[in-house]
Amino acid sequence: MNEVFKALSDPTRREILRALRAGERSAGELAEMFPLTKSTLSGHFAVLKAADLVVTEKRGTSVIYRLNTSVFEEVLSSLFDLFGGSPETQEKPS
GO molecular function, one example (predicted)? Predict the structure, then answer.
């Protein structure tokens, strides 16, 4: 889970994840959205992949990125366990 928090700690990586919420995008499409060098963007992709927050698929000469939603579900579940259960089991204020 440390890798996930490391990945989420950077605002640019959070923006990349926001861009992927709308659906998968090619590396080229993402590069057009962010005013970064290819090497800097590649570094961000590497951190997101290491945290398993994104999955990639090679299509011809393009690399396609999409969110790995199962990791987000695992992290949320772990946080709920850590802080006292799921929202459904929390006491409602009177």
Answer: DNA-binding transcription factor activity
Q: Where are the alpha helices (DSSP H) in 27-68?
A: 27-33, 38-50
Q: Which structure tokens are listed for 45?
A: 């992709």
Q: What are phi and psi of 48, to 5 degrees?
A: -65, -40
The pTM is what?
Answer: 0.78
**Contact, 58 vs 26, CB < 8 A?**
no
Task: Name the token pair of 43.
Answer: 């570094």
Structural contact between residues 17 and 25, judged by C-beta atoms closer than 8 angstroms: no
Domains within the chain, CATH numbers bracketed: 1-82 (1.10.10.10)
